[in-house]
């Protein structure tokens, strides 16, 4: 797969940094193709753990030197506009990881907050069942912000082992995008915007550790 980052740049937005379109992009066009630099593949036992996805990527970062070096090179920060509070299960996981690795708990929580803000999930399907899940970070996709009314779709559900093993991520425009627009995507899946407000908020909190404040959510809050 040919990597392509020519359509985007990292720029300043209302709440920090985000991906900005460098040209007009038509609906259906490929916006970004990028290889991940930090990742972990979830194991079966991980599926049984009630801790959120972010915990497992934190574990991969602090126990694998290559992941750690790449993660540090991104110089990422958590999004202060969102509230990242580890659940009881997340704290249990992080405390256990702290004891195992000797890393200070407050440092692990800091990494966890960053991972919550920036990671994405890629799923390999076989006969419509989940075969593998990869949690990942990479230079540009890290800066993409979640929206419940996004203008791109992450090709996160793959049917090909070859595509999954390539460790790349692809963004496709789900609507026309103008030069200078922020590029957003759903951190959950391409159908997420169809869920009701409470379901979206609960899912984001349990899976990603934050509550959404995108324009769609803000407008729906006013109607509650």
Compile the SSE list and pairings.
Elements lengths: L7 E6 L2 E6 L8 E6 L2 E4 L2 H5 L4 H11 L1 H10 L13 H14 L3 H14 L1 E7 L2 E9 L7 E2 L5 E3 L2 E2 L2 H5 L2 E6 L8 E4 L11 H12 L6 H9 L1
Parallel strand pairs: 5-9, 7-11
Antiparallel strand pairs: 1-2, 2-11, 3-10, 4-6, 5-6, 8-10
Helix pairs in contact: 2-3, 2-4, 2-5
Describe the structure.
By secondary structure, the chain is an alpha+beta fold. It has a single domain (8-223), classed as Beta-clip-like (Beta Complex), CATH 2.170.270.10. It is 36% helix and 25% strand. The protein has helices at 44-48, 53-63, 65-74, 88-101, 105-118, 161-165, 197-208, 215-223, and strands at residues 8-13, 16-21, 30-35, 38-41, 120-126, 129-137, 145-146, 152-154, 157-158, 168-173, 182-185. Strands 1-2-11-7 form a four-stranded mixed sheet, with no helix packed on it. A four-stranded mixed sheet has the order 4-6-5-9. The chain has a three-stranded antiparallel sheet with strand order 3-10-8. Helix 2 packs across helix 3 (65-74). The longest helix is centred in the middle third of the chain and has 14 residues, at 88-101. It is globular and about 50 Å long. The relative contact order is 0.20. The model has no long low-confidence stretch (mean pLDDT 88).
CATH class category name? Mainly Beta
- CATH T-level fold name: Beta-clip-like
CATH architecture: Beta Complex
Structural class: alpha+beta
Helix content: 25-40%
Tell me the number of helical segments per DSSP (H or I, 4 or more residues long): 8
Strand count, sense and barrel status of the largest sheet are: 4 strands, mixed
* Shape annotation: globular
- Give the strand content: 15-25%
Main sheet strand line-up: 1-2-11-7
The end-to-end distance, rounded to whole angstroms, is 45 Å
Elements, N to C (H/E) = EEEEHHHHHEEEEEHEEHH
Total strands:
11
The name of the CATH superfamily reads SET domain
CA-based gyration radius: 17 Å
Q: What's the overall average pLDDT, rounded?
A: 88
Runs with pLDDT <50, length 5+?
A: none
Count of all domains: 1
